[in-house]
Amino acid sequence: MSSITLQNLVKKYDDGFPAVNDISIDIEDGEFIILVGPSGCGKSTLLRMIVGLEDITEGDLLIGGERVNEKAPRERNLAMVFQSYALYPHLTVYENIAFPMRLTKGKFTKEEIDEKVRHAATMLELTEHLDRKPANLSGGQRQRVAMGRAIVREADAFLFDEPLSNLDAKLRGQMRAEIARLQRELNTTSVYVTHDQTEAMTLGDRVAVLKKGLLQQIASPRELYEQPANLFVAGFIGSPSMNFLPGTVEGNVFSTPLGKIEIPDRAAKAGAGREIVLAGIRPEFFDDASQLSEAQLSKGTTFTAEISHSEWMGNEQYAYVSYETDERVQDTLRNLAEEMDADELRTQLVVEVDATSRFRSGDTAELWLDTRRMHLFDPATGENLTRDAEAGAELTREAREDRKRDAERFVSRQS
Amino acid sequence: MASNGKLTGKQRLGWTVLTVVVLLYALFPVAAILATSFKTQADLGNAAFLPSNWTWANYEMILVGDAQELFLTAFRNSIGITLIATFIAVVLATLCAYAIARLNFPGKRIILGTALAVSIFPVISVVTPLFNLWRNIGLYDTWLGLIIPYLSLTLPISIWTLAAFFRQIPWDLEQAAQVDGATQWQAFRRAIVPLAMPGVFTTAIIAFFIAWNDFVYGISLTSTEAARPVPAALAFFTGASQFEEPTGAISAAAIIVTIPVVVLVLLFQRQIVSGLTQGAVKG
Ligand SMILES: Nc1ncnc2c1ncn2[C@@H]1O[C@H](COP(=O)(O)OP(=O)(O)OP(=O)(O)O)[C@@H](O)[C@H]1O
Ligand SMILES: [Mg+2]
């Protein structure tokens, strides 16, 4: 077990492409870090730099406090689960799992190897498949073999490169829980690459959001969700993604294409004097005003809008409100959509309301907005103008304490 | 064939019939030669398929009798020349195909294109200039004089087969092995070589067959027993008198020549199993 420190890491490929740009992350011993970002943002590259398969162009990489830039992969004692599982097709499941131990001559006796393989196999429910070849296994089983090969080693850290990306939804949920449990159980430092929202939010102690090789923000999932550093993080985290409503702030009034909305002092101050800002509003910040109590209503603002269509999902309901976007922010939003791998520019507000609300297309509905939780962004720089760094840091601190408590609880239960 | 899923009764019958037909078609000439090789001289003109009197005379003649000198030296030549040509072709093709499959370098397509062009060039149009050239530089009627043209036959196809094969190998495995604690050499030895071997064996066998079966170079570029391979030597068999056809002896020689090929295939059958690279990656 070890801490991993990335100091201003830079990766330029031979063709001059800067895949990773000046990334610094401090990963604590036992921490579970997620790397997310759109395709091609450098997640795999960064992971491969850590494990030693990719040369580091600039910067330092420390494992357990020791600089390892020049060390070969095998000297770094890290275990990796590859994006393609990279199982050895000519070896049985047993031999696949035993492979790393067979390479360390003399370190393990035959009995030790056997015991470790069987232990891992039990943990991953592979016992009855030990004599089979990878070709005859299902996707989920192959994934578990890859995991098994990683955990028998007692490596200093686990690195995962989108290990679940090819599994179906059900299996993915199962394996996600499995990985989370295993990581807590072994308390091994882990770095996990994904572009799946759910994996990022549920697995990580902290999540690092990357864009074009640049680190946008690293924080606990809650901090990312509630206090995003910029427009990109705000839009990338959350599903359905955040609405960005353009408008101008005058006093406590925010004028938008949907009408005037009253906003709290904090937002008013942040947006004051700017020609135009983007309000970041998550779908669940809205609600159906007719269903709320007076007390609740007074905490936000109500306004009316025409529902263009609605989708009833059983447990919730999405209503869509069309609006005219402002030309001045169109470029920003189009760029953002491109960066996030989104298909197109969305010019509809997504509103999440209770499943019992009776919104139909064409209705004029009265919507309530929780203005306390919305953020204002500068369209030019993407900066979050209303970010409360203090509150955000507190959320990440809490997540860290939770993790420590988890680990302690596990240790005490073991003894 | 349809390996996944059970065949219905009708399909199975169809396949069986088809297999039998193909086998009959392919093996009938071999069976005919085999039968002929056991016939006596008098029996040869006989239209019956099986010999009326089984005899080892033909085999005796080529192995210990009159034709022994002719046949055994030719046999030795064939084996030596073919093995050397195969070995060189496979080693060179392995290196070349590795580079083609793994590296990006200018001229990659030119190499592949040239290899293809060489392999489709008709042998007969090369043989005459080669004959003159070899006589001038002293390669005529030597082992080397046959090994070189055999390489031109076997190398292109070996490069193509191996390059196609190497492209399918999940090279990720090499890196996975390194992360698992292997040195670069160990990673290659333990993760890649086992996957590459079937391809190399298959290629070696194909190359061996091509060289083994050659007749045109063998007959044109040799004049004595110094280098003459079996297919060419068969044409020099003579009967006991000049009025007798050496058909029986030729048949016996043909059967003996077939044996190494059959042995080779049986020996390496297990190594040729394809699909060994399946299962390395996600479903
Ligand atoms: N060997 C290489 N040579 C040159 N450029 C490369 C090489 N490998 C990757 N890149 C580039 O580096 C960038 C980052 O690639 P990387 O594989 O790290 O992306 P990723 O974030 O893992 O994406 P994905 O989610 O699709 O796996 C990409 O733009 C890619 O084109
Ligand atoms: Mg990747």
UniProtKB/TrEMBL annotation, chain A:
UniProt GO MF annotations: ABC-type transporter activity; ATP binding; ATP hydrolysis activity
Keyword Zinc: no
Gene3D superfamilies referenced in this protein's UniProt entry, alphabetically: 2.40.50.100, Nucleic acid-binding proteins (2.40.50.140), P-loop containing nucleotide triphosphate hydrolases (3.40.50.300)
Biological process (GO), any one: carbohydrate transport
SUPFAM superfamilies: MOP-like (SSF50331), P-loop containing nucleoside triphosphate hydrolases (SSF52540)
GO CC terms of this entry: ATP-binding cassette (ABC) transporter complex, substrate-binding subunit-containing
Pfam families documented for this protein: ABC_tran (PF00005), OB_MalK (PF17912)
Record's compositionally biased regions (Basic and acidic residues): 385-415
Organism: Nesterenkonia sandarakina
SMART domains, alphabetized: AAA
Cross-referenced InterPro entries: AAA+_ATPase (IPR003593), ABC_transporter-like_ATP-bd (IPR003439), ABC_transporter-like_CS (IPR017871), ABC_transpr_MalK-like (IPR015855), ABC_transpr_MalK/UgpC-like (IPR047641), Mo/tungstate-bd_C_term_dom (IPR008995), NA-bd_OB-fold (IPR012340), OB_MalK-like (IPR040582)
Entry superkingdom: Bacteria
Keyword terms of this UniProt record: ATP-binding, Cell membrane, Membrane, Nucleotide-binding, Sugar transport, Translocase, Transport
Region Disordered, annotated ranges: 383-415
Residue ranges of every copy of the ABC transporter domain listed in the record: 4-237
Annotated protein name in UniProt: Multiple sugar transport system ATP-binding protein
UniProtKB/TrEMBL annotation, chain B:
Source species, domain of life: Bacteria
Membrane topology: Multi-pass membrane protein
Subcellular location: Cell membrane
Keywords from the UniProt entry: Cell membrane, Membrane, Transmembrane, Transmembrane helix, Transport
Biological process, per Gene Ontology: transmembrane transport
GO cellular-component term (any): plasma membrane
Main location: membrane
Domain ABC transmembrane type-1: residue ranges: 75-268
Transmembrane segments: 12-35, 79-101, 110-131, 143-166, 187-212, 249-268
InterPro entries, per the entry: BP-dep_ABC_trans_perm, MetI-like, MetI-like_sf
Stored Gene3D superfamilies: MetI-like
Family statement drawn from the similarity comment of this UniProt entry: Belongs to the binding-protein-dependent transport system permease family.
PANTHER family on file: INNER MEMBRANE ABC TRANSPORTER PERMEASE PROTEIN YCJP, MALTOSE TRANSPORT SYSTEM PERMEASE-RELATED
The protein's name: Carbohydrate ABC transporter membrane protein 2 (CUT1 family)
